[in-house]
Amino acid sequence: MNNDEMKKITNHRDFRDDEFWREIPAWKDVSREQFADHKWQSKNSIIKLKHVKEVLGSRVSEATIADIEAALKIAPMNIRITPYVFALIDWDDPANDPLRRQFLPFASQMLPNHPFYMEDSLHEDVDSPVSMLTHRYPDKVLFLPLTTCPVYCAYCTRSRIIGGSTSSIEKDTYGANPKLWDAAFEYLRNHPEIEDVVISGGDSYNLQASQIRHIGEALLDIPNIRRIRYATKGIAIFPMKILTDDNWVQAIVDVQKLGREKGKAVVIHTHFSSPREITEWSRQAMDRLFSEGVIVRNQAVLQSDVNNDVDIMTMLTRKLGYINIQPYYVYMHDMVPNCERFRTTLEEGVELEKAVRGTTAGFNTPRFVCDVPGGGGKRNIASYEYYDRETGISVWRAPEVKPGELFLYFDPIHKLAAYAQKRWAIEKERRVMVRDALSRVEPDLGSIKKETLRERFGLNI
Predict the structure, then answer these.
(1) In total, how many domains does the chain have?
(2) Which end of the chain is less enclosed by CB atoms within 10 A, N or C?
(3) What is the pLDDT of residue 443?
(4) Residue 439 DSSP SS3
(5) Rounded to an integer, what distance in angstroms lies between the CA atom of residue 393 and that of residue 432?
């Protein structure tokens, strides 16, 4: 093997470690020590358009600012970006930068919503027996103790409650309030079939150390709870907190040790979607967690022009494995509002999974899944009952989650052939296409729960 071949195989071991933030005019004199401080990162996060202009100065054109301003008038979320992520963006070519795409919208890149988009694509609110809990799988729940995050992702599946109210959307957001969590804990005590709790939101990074302990200890004290997962994008977009917020890290470590004493698993699930997010700061943060015995897994979202490329997805997978983060899931993008620019076809996901599998060890290869709209849960990306690549319609079953029901997922219309796009523009044709797809799975359409399809998609078949 020559040097070029060896470099191609091992380049996932290279981690950016330059003082890249100094390329931002307002931060050219910020020392490494300052930049490494989690308090400085929080204080200097970009939360308004005026901050973008103030920080970048002449590095950004008026046209770019106007593009962002127009996007924020229709985007479902406000902006919040840590200096770490903001400085990693290529501001010489922001339009094509994968990090900018994820966190800072351009109106020029936005597309109309799919006709069958849903505010709550995954039916988390519908499947909520008590406030802050979603109970869909028999032995697992999702717990949302807060709705704030250290960054707001433009592709967020929970934009209906996260990212603050905007000029176009009013939201019922809430911060961490332990007094409001008792109902969730009581529900878990009264349902002994539940063993697994995902603590998300929002983002666990925004829980105080005392709240990390409070939730962890309360859950571990419930006999039937065997597995706890703290979900946070923080390691990807704010690794400085792991390196300098000792109280928060110690709280995680303490809960994890308490879990081990009780024979229960406590892990972190994080969220890297681009290898560009992984730097020397990421590696050092993971070194600290790994040395404490904390297991970290990753859940990425498949996004057009961000990671829907074999080389990029392979690099992401191998870089994560190298810093001891287990690649766990790659999600098809949910059918939520203002996100059509991110969505890929199901076929793209299937082909990517084929290409990535075999590039590294099996346990370090992520599972590509579709969290099917309507609350069917996560399905293996190739486990659809029927998929028409021309119309972009796929039909799914979830027999152990919602037996007897059929679920639909739709490719983004702009990626279909021109004649298919024309059919989608006609409401009557949409019904014909959906009816045909459903009949391929269930020839007797009379057995399908028509009220469910009307509720989800406004379909009268």
Answers:
(1) 3
(2) N
(3) 86
(4) helix
(5) 12
The DSSP bridge pattern shows strands 227-231 and 196-199 to be parallel
Is there a single domain that holds both residue 181 and residue 240? yes
131-143 burial string, b = 16+ CB within 10 Å, else e? ebbbbbbeebbbb
Whether 303 and 394 map to the same domain: the answer is: no
Residue matched to tokens 């796929």 = 394
List, in order, residues 6 or more apart from 381 with CB less than 8 Å away: 332, 346, 349, 350, 353, 368, 369, 370
The pLDDT value given to residue 170: 85
Per-residue confidence (pLDDT) for residue 411, from 0 to 100? 98
pLDDT (tens digit, 9 = 90+) per residue, 88-119? 999 999 999 999 999 999 999 999 999 999 99
- Determine which helix (DSSP H) or strand (DSSP E) holds 281, and give its type and residue range: helix 280-291
Judgement on whether residues 257 and 297 belong to the same structural domain of the protein: yes
Cα 273 from Cα 317, distance rounded (Å): 10
Paired with 387 in beta bridges are 394
Map tokens 């006999």 to a residue. 223
pLDDT below 70 — which residues of the chain?
1, 446-461
* pLDDT given at position 388: 98
Match 């007897």 to its residue by tokens: 404
CATH number reported for the structural domain that contains residue 257 in this entry: 3.20.20.70
My answer on whether 230 and 194 are in the same domain is: yes
User: Which among 313, 389, 378 has a CA at the least distance from the CA of 347?
Assistant: 389
d(CA 48, CA 104): 11
288 — alpha (psi -120 to 50), left (phi > 0) or beta? alpha
